[in-house]
Amino acid sequence: MTQIEAARKGVITGEMEEAASSEGVSPEYVRKMIAEGKAVIPNNINRKARLVGIGQGLRTKVNASIGTSSDIIDVKAEVEKARAAEEAGADTLMELSVGGDLDAIRKEVLGSISLSVGSVPLYQAFKEAIEKYHDPNKLTEELLFDVLERQCSDGISFMAVHCGINRLTIERLNKQGYRYGGLVSRGGSYMVGWMMSNGKENPLYEKFDRVVEILKKYDCVLSLGNGLRAGAIHDSLDRAQVQELLINCELAEIGQDMGCQMMCEGPGHLPLDDIEANVKLQKRMSADAPFYVLGPLTTDIAAGYDHISAAIGAAEAARYGADLICYVTPAEHLALPNRDDVVEGVRAARIAAHVGDMVKLGKKGRDMDMSKARRDLKWDDQYRCGLFGERAGEIRASRSPAEPDTCTMCGSFCALDNVNVYFKESLGKGKKL
Ligand code: SF4
Fold first, then answer.
1. Beta strand pairing status for 54-55 and 39-40?
2. Chain centroid to CA 267
3. Cβ–Cβ < 8 Å for 199, 246
4. By percentage, how much of the chain surpasses pLDDT 90?
5. 283 with 291: CB under 8 angstroms?
6. How far is Cα 81 from Cα 84, in angstroms, rounded to an integer?
7. Side-chain half-sphere of 403: how many Cα atoms within 13 Å?
8. Binning pLDDT at 50, 70 and 90, where does residue 121 land?
9. Which residues pair with 160 in a beta bridge?
10. What angle do CA 177, 225, 154 make, to 5 degrees?
11. 399, 414, 417, 421: residue to mutate for ligand 1 pocket, most atoms within 8 A of CB
12. Among 410, 413, 417, which residue has the most ligand 1 atoms within 8 Å of its CB, making it the best to mutate?
């Protein structure tokens, strides 16, 4: 029985209890959200992972993606990146390798971390079609569904599957007649090529029932991929992207009714003033199915610092209801991320998720505790309250002050230290105005 099937029968599973325990919500709340299709727990009956809930009323989660490319195939480095992402505080990981022995790499990564792991099966399907037939467009339906089954069987907990790209979506793109940023989804671009070359409907759409049945068998979350997501802010919310989103929202409902946990994916690149509309559109059209956004990047000209551009967008998306945000690293658009890029990306996304949750969930208590610790110059408390206490401690220790209570920013001119002489008692007791 999948989580949504159990939830709809009124059963609280061990997975729901685990997801609730780290959230400060009741298991019954998690059950209700899953039953209504508003939350999911990435899970797999073949692998025990550290489970989190993703969805309404729950903390915004952060995903980190790793994986080899065709140019750089270093499995040890990918395992190290996966572990670094977990240590840096990622909630989930996507293993997106396209180079090397993909079955072996996936198993290695799954065995190295405790996070729930996601995948994009189209990468492996097209890679194997190229190896077997020397042409990605010769990919057969049987090979495609075999890859889905293989990845689920190995323990993948959520799978981004490009079901929403169909002939209607391509027709909309053709009629639209422009795309400033082209198609940036690897799986999406290959599937569009396959459909156009073969003159056939996308099997992941046409045989959606089969996709759902495979994932259901393992209690894996079906995340409806956004193959036509905008890869440039000027393509944000264009007709082709919205067409696919509309189809994905319809499919989310069908999948839920079949007993599968469902999630929808979104952009991509969005200017700041389009983010609210994008999130609300998805939420309204899918009856609040969990929304997974990639970034979104808020400007196209910050290469080298795209993790910051994306964190700005992710904070805004989380504020309006996005439930899972995929990190972006400083290497985005430039190179395969290394370990340091992964850590920076996770940290930036965690800040964004927290900033969004301060508004979405009213989670401001930790910030209040930090304010008081700063006012009272309690450094150990500050490190405890901070998202990155260890890093904060390292910076302070690297430039120690002469006055031990202060820091070297102002030294003996420390405003807090000076004022506390006069107001320590009253400032500590005052009520919020
Ligand atoms: S020295 Fe300046 S920056 Fe440092 S704690 Fe005091 S007021 Fe803050």
1. antiparallel
2. 11
3. no
4. 86
5. yes
6. 5
7. 15
8. very high
9. 223
10. 150
11. 414
12. 410
- Beta-carbon contacts of 100 under 8 Å, excluding residues fewer than 6 positions away, are 68, 73, 75
CA of 368 from ligand 1 middle (Å) equals 18
Looking from the CA of residue 417, the nearest atom of ligand 1 is 6
Range in 99-113, 199-213, 316-330, 400-414 with the lowest mean pLDDT: 400-414
Give the per-residue pLDDT at 433.
40
Which residue minimizes the CA distance to atom 3 of ligand 1?
A: 409
pLDDT score, position 417? 86
Q: How many CB atoms lie within 10 A of CB 202?
A: 22
Q: Phi then psi for 264, rounded to 5 degrees? A: -110, 145
Pocket of ligand 1 (CB under 6 A): 406-407, 409-410, 414-417
Q: Write down the H helix ranges in 199-238.
A: 203-206, 208-218
Burial 113-123 (b: 16+ CB within 10 A, else e): bebbbbbbbbb
Output the CA–CA distances (angstroms, integers) from residue 246 to 55, 174, 249, in the order listed: 19, 17, 5
Each domain of the chain, given as residue ranges in start order, spans 3-360, 365-429
Give the integer Cα–Cα distance in Å for 216 and 221. 8
pLDDT tens digits, 227-278? 888 889 999 999 999 999 999 999 999 999 999 999 999 988 999 999 999 9
The class (CATH top level) of 3-360 is alpha beta
Instruction: Estimate to the nearest angstrom the gap between the alpha carbon of 284 and the chain centroid.
Output: 20
Give the Cα separation of 269 and 282 in Å (integer). 16
Confidence of residue 422 (pLDDT cuts 50, 70, 90): confident
Answer whether 15's CB lies under 8 Å from 51's CB: yes
237: its two tokens: 């919310």
User: Which residues, 6+ apart, have CB-to-CB distance to 277 below 8 Å?
Assistant: 237
Average pLDDT over residues 61-87: 97
Q: Which two tokens stand for residue 47?
A: 């692998």
Residue 45, sorted as left (phi over 0), alpha (psi -120 to 50) or beta, turns out to be alpha
CA–CA dist 392, 384 (Å, integer): 10
Distance between Cα 381 and ligand 1 center (Å): 15
H or E segment and range at residue 28? helix 27-35
Residue 115 has pLDDT above 60, yes or no: yes
Amino acid at 339: R
Strand ranges in 216-278 using DSSP code E only, listed in sequence order: 221-224, 262-265
pTM of the model as a whole: 0.94
